[in-house]
Specification:
Layout (H helix, E strand, L loop, with lengths): L1 E4 L4 H17 L4 E4 L4 H7 L5 E4 L2 E5 L4 H8 L4 H16 L8 H8 L1
Parallel strand pairs: 1-2
Antiparallel strand pairs: 1-3, 3-4
Helix pairs in contact: 4-5
């Protein structure tokens, strides 16, 4: 988790107050970067701070809630697993061998 910030930014302090306990609970790294240290970051984020990134993707600007941060840290995977299982079943219906059972699909989406 990266919070792009600058000194004296009260919204940045609020974002840190939301992010720090969740990062600690999850064992996630939390870094606060001043936009004043990099001219490109300053130009990009001057009016948007705080800018919160998770794994390099911007997930919020100005404000973030605990729910938003948790959602960014826990992207949905069950739907992806189920989609992959459904594709496998469709290939099976088209003539491929090795069709997964409904129990195998349930396990892959858990």
């Amino acid at each position: 988790i990266v919070i792009h910030s600058r000194p004296g930014c009260h919204l940045c302090d609020d974002a840190y107050a939301v992010c720090a306990p969740i990062a600690a609970q999850r064992g996630a790294d939390l870094e606060v970067r001043s936009i004043l240290d990099d001219p490109r970051t300053l130009a990009a984020y001057r009016e948007l701070i705080p800018v919160i990134e998770v794994d390099g993707a911007v997930v919020a600007t100005w404000r973030i809630t605990a729910e938003q941060l948790r959602a960014a840290l826990d992207p949905p995977t069950a739907g992806v697993s189920m989609t992959l299982c459904m594709r496998s079943q469709m290939r099976s219906l088209a003539g491929s061998a090795g069709r997964p059972s409904s129990q195998e699909c349930a396990r892959s989406s858990a």
